[in-house]
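Q: Entry one of two.
A:
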Amino acid sequence: MPSVNSSDSVRNSLTESEVIPTVIHDRAFIPKGFLAIHFDSGKEAALGNDIRPADSQHLLRVDFTLNLPNDGSSTVNISKEDLFTLAMTDPDAPARSDNKFSEILHYLAIDVPLNTFTAENTSSTDQLSTADLKGKTLYHYIPPGPRPKTGKHRYVFLLFKQTPGVTPQAPKDRRNWGTGIRGVGAAEYAEKYKLELYAVNFFYAQNDQQ
């Protein structure tokens, strides 16, 4: 698993893969923690590793570790009462060279609490962790299903902090996040519902036929 306190490593992976600016339009985005994605196959997303579609069929668990400001990240204003939105999106549908279906919404849950914070160890408060994020599911998880000969797709998980009093609604469709506009997805949804991006992780998957 990548180091949870290395914001620069996360940013570099997001930039090199062009998740920034394709999915994340804010080029100055600084992660406020690390999002761990576990599948029941035993595979985990690791900031751009390759996972076969067959090994990402069932989402087992999503964990979040919050980095406090002394790790070099921006000031984090968070409480146990805050709620979050968790999403998975594919910006490469039907292919990275053709984004007419992009982004495809693969998973969306809102009103996700961060559970009870637990220090990583008793001698340090550098990190606060929560495990197995769950909330109100608006779109159930659908696993990667890239078409033959469309190359690698990026599958991006994003955790957003919700604005108190603003409840995100379900998009009308998974394709283009219900907008019918090529290339539209998570960033536009976040802007609409005043969501603040906290953490990101992603992996690559492709059809065996290339």
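Q: Entry two of two.
A:
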Amino acid sequence: VLEHLNMHPQKILSEIRRVLKPGGCVILSTPNVSSWKKIYALSNGDWGYDSPTFSEGWGHRYEYSYYQVRTLLMLSGFSIVQEKAADVYFDDPKGSRPAMQLVLNVFSKIITGDMRCAAKLWRRRGSGLFFCASKADVAGEPATSTLMNV
């Protein structure tokens, strides 16, 4: 529900960490603002952001990128156990045209020498972000878990 909060999510994540047992895990999923779906929509002049969110609705107040969620979890005292970005929505771009646009975009990054950006665009392109993060043990070591298999 991070995308629906009207306060900074680090406050909520810190509270979740506080009440979690040592070695406990939090499983978090949220839409990916930097997904290929959002980039594709924006390039076609349609920012698919939930506009009524700043009124009294329960829509998305803020959407996060993979790196923002990862940073929020780490700053709140969690260790990342597992992470994944995946296309999960019925309206995710499908078919040869969006696939070709993604490939050409990644290829243009490679040609210009921006390999790191190309890899990030390819790996973090999914419309949904999924994280499993653990609370550090009492000794300060991160707990290990195989709880989530996204």
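A: Comment on entry two: The beta strands are 25-31, 78-86, 128-135. Confidence is low (pLDDT under 50) at residues 138-150.
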